[in-house]
Amino acid sequence: MADLRGPVLVVGTGLLGTSVALACRRAGLEVYLKDASSEHLRTASGLGAGKAYDGQPVQLVVVAVPPDHLGSIVADALRDTDAIVTDVGSIKSQPLAQVAAVAPESVGRYVGSHPMAGSERSGPLAASATLFEGRPWAIAVHDQADADAVRLVTELVEACGGVPLQLTPQEHDQAVARTSHLPHLMASLVAGRLVDAPEEHLALSGQGVRDVTRIAAGDPRLWQQIITANSAALLGLIDEVQGRLTEFRAAISADERGPLGVLLAEGVAGTRAIPGKHGGPPRPMRSLYVAVPDHPGELARLFADAGEIGVNIEDVHIDHDPGRPVGLVELLVEVDRAEHLRVSLGERGWDLHS
Amino acid sequence: MADLRGPVLVVGTGLLGTSVALACRRAGLEVYLKDASSEHLRTASGLGAGKAYDGQPVQLVVVAVPPDHLGSIVADALRDTDAIVTDVGSIKSQPLAQVAAVAPESVGRYVGSHPMAGSERSGPLAASATLFEGRPWAIAVHDQADADAVRLVTELVEACGGVPLQLTPQEHDQAVARTSHLPHLMASLVAGRLVDAPEEHLALSGQGVRDVTRIAAGDPRLWQQIITANSAALLGLIDEVQGRLTEFRAAISADERGPLGVLLAEGVAGTRAIPGKHGGPPRPMRSLYVAVPDHPGELARLFADAGEIGVNIEDVHIDHDPGRPVGLVELLVEVDRAEHLRVSLGERGWDLHS
User: Are A120 and A215 in contact (CB under 8 A)?
Assistant: First the structure.
């Protein structure tokens, strides 16, 4: 029966490896570190992520190296230790196939994983024990995986504050092609158009273009490995995008608003398909109805009161009959905050309807 | 000599119009509101944005209506008042041409503008007096613009907390095609690919895809107007993107890392071309060098000390000679904070080198 008690060996002390190590240390586990770069290793150790590894027995190995090296380093870890082995790489099918080819007898001890957290920065100095807090963390359960290995990797995810999600390696790779690799390519294409733009044009950059292009700052050497290792899933999506972009171009060129509106509406629907913050399910909401006098500043006073009461208003609708001097405002709040807001607004003299 | 003293008339009480009105009220100006939607007007008034307009004389009219209506509403304002008129629309050439055609005698009183601020939400309830704080705000100065009009619009921008930037209407439209309209299309294409994805795949959505797709949630009816009104500038960029996407596809399909790396590096360069936060110039930095003992936790202690001292570390480099027990850490901080950090770290026993 698996039970995460350490020691944990983290191989690769970049952003992800060092963050896993820091999170494990925070959880009270003994952590050893290994890295081909002595500078990274010393930096991670200097940050309190663990001690340099020197062959001590460990319970779990976490491989946090670039995609090109995943398969061979995981196989090394299976050969050199009898520990359970996981990794935190961005692709899951290719390394599994490599491990199964060279170490078929111990592939059951390997269960890959992938935390959906990162940064456009890299290296141990960008690491944080809280990087995975509340973030989805895929566990790529394959046919030959030992149940104990799956359980121990799940405990690692939980110790790091992540939200474990089980998928097959193939499903994982299809999912991240859509939610990570295609967005990266497109961000890169948008950012690339800024390179030769006049400075006074770039001065108009607002938050929108910053958000769209942020991830394009990621390390090209890492991303070319990720993208080529997941090319099968990605090419199909690129074809879809090329088709839609051709449609966009035709609609814009011909000033056809109908088709353009359909394409834009598809985008709106897509943003709504993304689950609530941190990958959790949408939270249940409740509506409160408040009568608001039609005087300047009354709505502002209502929102200020809700703020002081400490309840977050998730959405607002106003139902106003122009013939009446009072409007009915619908406030959407989380179910477990609704009663507190209802009572507190009532105490402040607001007229609540059910 | 222009001198913004009000009253200001805001036509259109959506997100932008109501935010301008709230910012003007905060600046102590009298504000009148006008909107075809009585619900929007009452909501904006309820938020304290101003009083309903009833023909009072005004000094400045701010037109904040969708692109399709900009030209005619600006022309109406020039005809109905002798005020200076601006607008806050996303495109500048087309409305100017429309105004010049129907009101050539008063086009000098019209100077369009465009704050680089917004939200994927819309309507007066999403408005805020601080929406424009520190944001670039283009002022589209055309050949026939009165100097007084340019000055008054500049004062409006400053009263709202924005950073005024003068461009010609044509330059503005080319700039926003690159920094706003193309990013919107691409965000929409990425978001569109999520619509039919299985729920367990979408559960892997991290911050990256959220950031890339955020602006795609914008109102399609508004965006189809913006895009078609700026089609000339946008089509050229779409062609560039299609070309690059074809190159990406070929490189991925053939597993050619060289060309793929070049395309990704172009994206990295693009993210660096975006000027510092809020459109200001990059701030000058100074380096401090600190000797850090090679013990676990020492770097963490250095960063904690810098945090307590209250100086933001903008970047860090570590120069570590593996033969020595001490590493030299370079801290980059804003010039005017460097001396305070140097003295304070010295007081805490750190060994600083120059």
Answer: yes
